[in-house]
Design brief:
Low-confidence stretches: 288-348
Number of strands: 16
Mean pLDDT: 83
Largest sheet: 6 strands, antiparallel
Number of helices: 19
Helix content: 40-55%
Strand content: 5-15%
Length: 717
């Protein structure tokens, strides 16, 4: 019933279960979701305000965007649309609408909330936004209202640009802007005469600086953004007064020099006309490179990397050749082995060539072992004593062999090596336990940092909320004071008239009293039922003129309901006049009222010029006083706001300074832990190498046993 186009007529409108068709409302229009029968979804914009030359504007925008080469764009930000002059029927009248492709994606703030912990994604989005602004500049297009609500981020991380109401294209040169854009993204210098290709430059800087800052330090989102706030990191107030801005102060004092430079440029741009603003240069910001890792040192000497080749003199050559490739040789900083390379080499394959002493010992041992047998044969030794002699000879031979074995260089080298390895093992200790303890310490530091950062961010948000709440109270109080003052100002004319009336009232009363005094009571003789006798009675009661009595009270009394007339004299005393009953009293009362009415009609109705000037001066003085009070109220409110802003900014900066100092301490602690971890890892590798060397030394020691030595003495092998 409402749409003219067949595809929309047969479509399904997105609805609220209770309220019906669900709008997304803005300043100039409401947008509805309509899904066609084919499943294609559209955004249907119905305008709520009349915009000058709307049809010609949209026609120019449509033709320009349709002519763009989408393949040449950095991303598919351009949304197709169709302007229908007679699109929607309302109360029997056709109105225009805009039919646009439905853009899927999250608003910029929602996307940041979802990806705030991913600096790489934030940096990539900043680069894509810079590419989008480059597309706009290259095609001569300015959106006119670049802000978080009009920038949708699709699933692939590319932008979709929506809401083309204030867009500039070259065909619209000479037109004026139809809107001023979101106040938290616009330059304080912008006016409706600014309508050209440079319209988006300030907004582009605002958004890019925010994204780049978050990619460098995601914690800035908690520190500078407010939940539900219609901005990213900076607001209109920050652009108008950068020197007093806590947010600018935070960015300008950030440890990252690139971020400080960006914030400084953004601050300077706030005071420049739009026509002088630069475009975003490509590749303007990239995250700072990670600092080079310093090699850890132990006390006075450097610990070599585990993969570094070991000194060939650290172990005997026979042992070094048998070390596993996965176990590094011990560093030169370890305790040196006091064994000669020749002795070490001699142990490489068991006992080496026999010494002359070894040959002599072998002969002596042979004779010593054969001596009991020869003595028995020659009968020098009794047969019964042969076993004892044989045992003694064997013990003597083994003793001599053991003593000679200990003098061998291979045995001495192995003994020195094993002693050195055990000493190294004791010196190294248990680095695995120290590494586990260090990991626990690092985890505790991480928890402490997270807790401190969360508390710091919460304190900053609390201070911001305090500023907002107190600022709102100041505004409410100011509005109440201004309303009261404006009410008094509006009442001044009425109050001046009341003063005029009050000043005129005594003159009128005096005139009336004068007229009453000028009318003698004798005139009542002419009235019906009244005569000379009545006049004499009135004079006798002290009533000589109409001014001598003010009213008549009637008192009912007696058994027959008689009414007595009591005349109220000018002094307030009541008297009863003889021969004047109720009827005559009412005649006299009416006579006096007539005189009073005639006098009132002839009474003065205006004050003198001097009196009027005096009253006007009094009113002017009150008006001046009220205007002064109004100005003072505004000044007091602004002073309160300034003091509040100064206090909150000071406290927020103190929190930020404390956080920065704590972060520096954290960095030092992390660096120290990293150095300790590297040292412990080297020690762990040393311990593994030493343990492997001990195992190999024990295995080698079996080839240098006494049995092997005795066999070597006999056979030479």
């Amino acid at each position: 019933m409402c749409f003219r186009e067949p595809e929309l007529k047969s479509g399904t409108v997105g609805r609220d279960p209770v309220l019906g068709p669900k709008p997304i409302s803005g300043n100039f229009a409401s947008v509805f979701s309509v899904t066609s029968r084919s499943g294609h979804r559209y955004a249907v914009k119905c305008f709520t305000q009349d915009v000058a030359a709307q049809e010609s504007r949209y026609d120019a925008i449509s033709r320009h965007l349709a002519a763009l080469d989408r393949a040449a764009l950095s991303q598919p930000w351009n949304i197709g649309f169709e302007y229908q002059p007679q699109g929607v029927l309302v109360a029997g009248q056709w109105y225009p609408l805009l039919k646009m492709e439905w853009a899927e994606g999250n608003s910029l703030i929602r996307w940041i909330e979802d990806h705030r912990a991913d600096p790489a994604a934030l940096g990539a989005l900043a680069d894509r936004f810079a590419a989008l602004t480059a597309d706009l500049a290259a095609t001569g297009v300015a959106h006119g209202d670049l802000q978080h609500g009009n920038l949708l981020v699709a699933r692939d991380g590319t932008f979709r640009l929506v809401d083309y109401d204030g867009m500039f294209v070259p065909a619209l040169a000479g037109y004026r802007a139809t809107e001023m854009g979101h106040r938290n993204y616009q330059s304080p210098q912008r006016s409706d005469t600014d309508f050209g290709p440079g319209l988006d430059r300030f907004s582009a800087w605002v958004i890019y600086v925010s994204l780049a800052a978050l990619s460098a330090d995601p914690m800035l989102w908690d520190q500078l953004h407010e939940s539900g706030g219609e901005f990213l990191l900076l607001t209109e107030d920050d652009f108008r007064a950068p020197a007093a801005s806590f947010r600018f102060g935070t960015l300008l004092s950030h440890p990252d020099p690139r971020l400080r430079d960006l914030a400084g440029r953004m601050r300077d741009l706030s005071a420049q006309p739009l026509s002088e603003l630069p475009t975003l240069p490509p590749g303007m910001f990239s995250g700072p490179a990670a600092p080079p890792r310093a090699r850890p040192s132990v006390h006075s000497g450097s610990i070599p990397h585990p993969s570094a080749p070991s000194n060939s003199g650290s172990y005997p050559s026979w042992l070094t050749g048998h070390l596993p490739s996965t176990v590094p040789a011990p560093p030169t900083a370890s305790v040196s082995v006091s064994a000669s390379s020749g002795a070490s080499a001699s142990a490489g394959s068991g006992f080496q060539r026999r010494r002359r002493a070894d040959v002599v010992l072998a002969c002596c041992m042979t004779l010593l072992v054969l001596a009991p047998t020869l003595l028995t044969v020659s009968s020098l030794l009794a047969a019964s004593a042969y076993p004892t002699a044989q045992g003694g000879a064997m013990l003597a031979a083994f003793g001599a062999g053991g003593a000679s074995r200990r003098t061998r260089s291979e045995v001495r080298a192995l003994r020195l090596l094993r002693r050195d390895l055990r000493r190294r093992s004791q010196t190294i200790g248990h680095p695995e336990k120290a590494l586990a303890s260090l990991d626990q310490e690092a985890q505790a530091l991480d928890r402490h940092i997270q807790d401190r950062e969360a508390k710091g961010s919460a304190r900053i948000r609390q201070l911001q909320a305090e500023q907002n709440d107190e600022g709102a109270r100041v505004t409410i109080t100011l509005n109440q004071r201004l309303a009261a003052i404006d009410g008094e100002l509006a009442a001044l004319p009425r109050r001046e008239q009341e003063r005029r009336d009050r000043a005129l009232a005594p003159l009128q009363r005096s005139h009336i009293q004068d007229q009453l005094r000028r009318t003698p009571i004798g005139e009542t003789a002419k009235l019906s039922n009244l005569g000379a006798g009545t006049t004499s009675a009135l004079i006798g009661a002290g009533i000589r003129t109409a001014a001598d009595f003010t009213a008549v009270h009637y008192v009912t009394g007696g058994g027959y309901g008689n009414v007595t007339a009591m005349f109220v004299l000018a002094n307030g005393r009541q008297v009863k006049v003889p021969s004047i009953g109720e009827k005559r009293a009412r005649t006299l009362e009416s006579w006096r009222k007539d005189i009073e009415n005639r006098a009132r009609r002839s009474a003065p109705v205006k004050l003198s010029p001097a009196e009027l000037n005096s009253l006007a001066a009094q009113t002017a003085a009150e008006r001046s006083r009220l205007h002064s009070e109004r100005k003072r109220a505004q000044t007091d409110a602004q002073t309160h706001r300034d003091r509040l802003r100064t206090r909150i900014t000071t406290e927020q900066r103190a929190v930020m300074d404390a956080q920065q100092a704590a972060r520096a301490d954290d960095a030092r602690a992390r660096a120290e832990m990293s150095q300790r971890r590297a040292q412990l890892a080297l020690l762990r590798d040393d311990r593994a190498a030493v343990d492997a060397a001990l195992t190999l030394a024990r295995r080698t020691g079996r080839g240098l046993s006494l049995r092997r030595y005795l066999l070597f003495l006999v056979t030479g092998r």
